Amino acid sequence: MKKILTLSFIILLFINQQLKANPITSLTIEMPTPTEVTLWIDGVNFGSFRNSITLDQLYTGTHEMKILGSRRHLNRYQPTPIIYCGQVETRYNTKTIAQLLHGYGIRISYLPLYNQVCYQTPYQSSCHPNHHASPTCNNYPPPTTIPVIYPVSEQAFCQFKQVLANTWFDSDKKALICNFLQMNFVTTQQAYQLINQLDFEQTRLAIAKEAYLKTVDRQNYYSVFCLFDFESSKKCLSEYMASV
User: What is the pTM of this model?
Assistant: First the structure.
């Protein structure tokens, strides 16, 4: 009997330590428009939803997330459309909000969760200027939203590059890239590849300016300068980057 109680105590202690190491947090996923999709987290199917879904039983850390479109109007030979495939990070004592953007982009926001804490201190409370801290007084600052922008997934980017590769004229490529950048964020490396798809210097310069506004790692953007032949183009781009 003592051995069973001891073993049970050890198991409970282990579970408690695991929960402390990986506290459970909240994750909310929001679609840009009402669309029937299926959610997979770490290889587990969490079912279908249309507008948004909230998961309250996820551990903090990095999770593999896949959002699949509906197969309602597809035949058996057509693949299931992938709305998003990538990673999402959940943090301790934080509500994570993942907002799907039009296209394949995603915006992550972290909303801190503050507990109601009473400070029984001899000085006056900020909530009650003429009294000591009340048991219902919350001395924490109000929650703030910290936006984190993720670039388009490599899978979606490769599909778009194939479309560009089948387009002949610079003017048509420019229009496609501008539409793509309106819906997605990119890395400097991805912006480099988009600019390199164009033939004319002026078109490259125009797209370089557009892509800079949607680049998530602007500190690396000077690497695209080698795509320009004229110093005047490099100077123009540099002045534009400094002005925005």
Answer: 0.46
